Amino acid sequence: MRTEEGGAALHPDVERVLLSEADIHARVAEMGRQITRDYAGKKLLVVGILKGSVIFLSDLMRKIDLPCEIDFICLKSYSGQSSTGVVQLLLDLRESAEGRDLLLVEDIVDTGLTLNYLNQNLMTRKPKSLEICSLLDKPDCRKVRVNAKYVGFKIPNEFVVGYGLDYNEKYRNLPYIGVLKTPARG
Ligand code: 5GP
User: Fold this and answer.
1) How far apart are CA 16 and CA 83, in angstroms?
2) Which residues line ligand 1 (CB under 6 A)?
3) In Å, how far from its chain's centre is CA 134?
4) Residue of 19, 165, 169, 171 with the most ligand 1 atoms within 8 Å of its CB, for mutation
5) Looking at residue 157, what DSSP letter applies?
6) Is the CA virtual torsion 37, 38, 41, 42 positive or negative?
7) How far is the CA of 40 from the centre of ligand 1 (A)?
8) Would you name the residues annotated as active-site residues?
9) pTM of the prediction?
10) What is the pLDDT of residues 121-155, one digit of tens each?
């Protein structure tokens, strides 16, 4: 078990670090370079899925060396540590998606229900293209198929927090991704 992350003490509720700040930053830079190559000559509309993607999105955007716009959409499917299975749209895009090259940015794909819902919803708005970029992927939990073109890390079926990911709105500001201790999960 690691007790430190980048010289700082580990949060007392975190059992272990799964991905360090350095691991995350290196991978995000690589993803930015790949997206820059793939979208050369296009005008990207980057769509962040609130709230979990905000930290990933803000780091990723600065590694995309192309003109790009940003918009947000807010969905809810989780309560505490489990997916409710019902996806609710809480906030819609302000930009029109029609004819745009959309890149959906998500923190983690778990059951796939959120992205499946969003993919179907956004395709009805006739974008020119629609791709998914997720920092994390838990492939063992999938209930519906999701084609994410860009995935940062595949991780085991454990509940993780940090770098934007929460547990009941806590821990989003941890700079690393870690597994919570059991008592912290109440
Ligand atoms: P899905 O619809 O794919 O089951 O779930 C996607 C959403 O569930 C993510 O955007 C995230 O909010 C939440 N989620 C899934 N797994 C985890 C996890 O391990 N940790 C946290 N904090 N949220 C998760």
Assistant:
1) 23
2) 52, 77-78, 83, 106-114, 159-161, 165-167
3) 5
4) 165
5) S
6) negative
7) 31
8) 110
9) 0.93
10) 999 999 999 999 999 999 998 999 999 999 999 99
For ligand 1, the distance from its centroid to the CA atom of residue 108, given in whole angstroms, is 6
Q: Which domains does the chain have, with CATH numbers?
A: 25-158 (3.40.50.2020)
List, in sequence order, every beta strand (DSSP E) within 3-137. 4-5, 8-9, 14-19, 44-50, 68-79, 82-91, 101-109, 129-137
Residue in the block written with tokens 């962040």: 48
158-175 burial by CB neighbour count: b if 16+ within 10 A, else e? eebbbbbbbbeeebbebe
> Residue 172 has what pLDDT?
97
* CA–CA dist 42, 80 (Å, integer): 39
- Smallest Cα–Cα separation from 176: which of 51, 15, 63? 15
> In the numeric block, which tokens belong to residue 20?
């360090």
6 residue type, one letter: G
Q: What distance separates the 2 farthest-apart alpha carbons in the chain?
A: 50
